[in-house]
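[Automated response] Your request has been received and processed.

Submitted sequence:
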Amino acid sequence: MEHGENQITIVDEKGNEQLCEVLFTFESEDFGKSYVLFQQVGGVEDDEEGPEIHAYAFNPNDEDGEGELIPIETEEEWDMVEEMLNTFFDEQEDEE
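Generated structure:
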């Protein structure tokens, strides 16, 4: 994974690159991890659910500008991430 200001390039297991827009990042003291939430640039939106949003734990590597995405595995982490995403969307609505 490479960093940009608000965009990252995700390289999948087949070597395909996907440009993604970072929605936000945050750290959790409870889990001792950093998290990143993003969506694919130009991705297809579902009218009912909106764009597909991806969430991963993130292990930055400042030396080469790349980092490692780590799948979220526990239900407790998913609940916390979902709560943060809902708060993010609520704040976005308040700004409009």
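Summary generated for your ticket: The two ends are 31 Å apart (CA to CA). The CA atoms of residues 1 and 14 lie 14 Å apart.
If you did not submit this request, please reply to this message.
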